[in-house]
Design brief:
Largest sheet: 7 strands, antiparallel
Strand order of the largest sheet: 2-3-4-8-7-6-5
Structural class: alpha+beta
Low-confidence stretches: 1-25, 245-291
Distance between the termini: 21 Å
Number of strands: 9
Helix content: 25-40%
Shape: globular
Length: about 290
């Protein structure tokens, strides 16, 4: 059962829009249908059997209930752990805004990037206040930005808290990882607490390693003559873009503890419906879409 749920989650994650050919009145040819299917799949995420994927609609409701700003145009879903003591959540987004140049990673300034983040949080605080949630404050780095030019993976993490909380309270942690591709990037944001991040950040690294772009969608597949280049570079994923465009996901630690079990239970119930759907007789070309 777990393997089937994991496979269902991976398929839901990788596909972001129904191929436009299916909306036409006349049925597409076999070749064009397969081409459209291939184009719609960006990547594959191989979820471990003890992780569960929560689809977009359900995941967005959970995040908003926890006081987070959700950008529906880029939000893909959540990953949660099925172990009894799992309290982390991973927020997955895909932003298709073009090829992200990574030249600025060679000489960026971590303190300047931190200032941009703090400024961006002040903007998102307006939304939190309007919805009755306390304002957030960024304290500093948990892990300064690090970029691997060989794998095109970016990792960085912040320490944050509610503005009215004492300094000695448990802090919210956003452990951010990114995987760059030809047309954009995946963002996998681990939501945790300061007392757990040392052990739980391994979850984010595991998922990042388990995400692979399909052939033709990889960063190295970029074509300077045909592909779109994003209007911002890699540093913007740490500064203003990360907060102002995507929304900074900073949870209250108490809310994570309170709702973690509810999220897991809801995910298991949802899994029954997912399994029922995938027990339908597959089409002959089902293997082609999952590749």
């Amino acid at each position: 059962m777990q393997k089937l749920i994991a496979a269902a989650g991976a398929m839901l994650l990788a596909m972001f829009a129904l191929p436009s050919a299916f909306a036409q009145a006349a049925p597409p040819s076999e070749a064009s249908r397969k081409a459209e299917l291939a184009a719609a799949w960006q990547a594959t995420l191989k979820l471990p059997t003890d992780y569960f994927f929560v689809p977009k609609a359900e995941g967005a409701r959970v995040l908003r209930a926890l006081g987070n700003v959700v950008n529906d145009s880029v939000f893909v879903g959540l990953v949660v752990g099925l172990h009894q003591n799992d309290q982390w959540i991973v927020v997955i987004r895909y932003v298709k805004e073009g090829y992200i140049k990574d030249d600025d990673a060679k000489n960026w300034n971590a303190e300047e990037l931190l200032k941009n983040l703090k400024d961006g949080v002040e903007e998102t605080n307006k939304d939190r206040t309007a919805r009755g949630f306390p304002e957030m404050q960024v304290i500093g780095w948990v892990e300064p930005p690090g970029y691997d030019a060989g794998t095109h993976r970016l990792v960085w993490s912040l320490l944050a808290k509610d503005k009215d909380e004492p300094d000695n309270t448990q802090k919210s942690i956003n452990y951010n990882t990114y995987a760059l591709g030809r047309d954009g990037y995946f963002s996998l944001n681990l939501l945790s607490g300061s007392e757990r991040i040392a052990s739980e950040k391994a979850v984010a690294h595991e998922l990042l390693a388990d995400l692979s772009y399909n052939a033709g969608k990889r960063y190295e597949d970029f074509s300077v003559t045909t592909d779109r280049i994003a209007e911002y570079g890699l540093a913007a994923l740490i500064g203003g873009i990360a907060v102002k465009k995507l929304g900074l996901f900073a949870l209250f630690v108490a809310l994570v503890l309170k709702f973690a079990k509810v999220i897991i239970i809801g995910a298991v119930v949802l899994g029954a419906g997912v399994m029922k759907f995938f027990r339908r007789k597959p089409r002959n070309d089902s293997a082609d879409g999952a590749a």
